[in-house]
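Before relying on records like the one below, remember that each one covers exactly one chain. Contacts with other chains, cofactors or solvent are not represented anywhere in the record.
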Amino acid sequence: MTTSPASAAERWDTYSADRSTIRPGETFTITMTLTNSETTDISFVYEYVEPLWPLNTTTNRITVTGCGGDVADCTVSGLTAKFHPRVPIAPGDSRSVTLTVQALPASSPTPGEIVSTGWNPYIYYEYDRTPTGSFLYRHGGPFNPTELQGRILY
């Protein structure tokens, strides 16, 4: 497999959260959008998103309540969600996937405690083949993008 340098400068992934601050019992939704900036259809996509510290080391701060979007399938294991958006994705078209998370009441909250939330997204896609049959692909994602940073207020 090889990557294509021709489209490397174009923005192909965007991230957002519908809220940056939540309280126990409230939910927020993360959206990850892949836009095909290639000149051919994207034929395969795999995406995942997982929480960063301290959320990834505790079991009593958040719970995943759903995943979806423009997907063929999505699965949740613990606090990590994995997605396969519908393909093909034509040049210029986009697919968005969502993850909905709920803040849980703390088992022993400290009044006024603030817990930071951060997320690590990843996207891999294949969009063409070389003359020898290898897939052209792109992958990556920003570590803890500011669009997905937030906090839980107790």
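The two ends are 47 Å apart (CA to CA).
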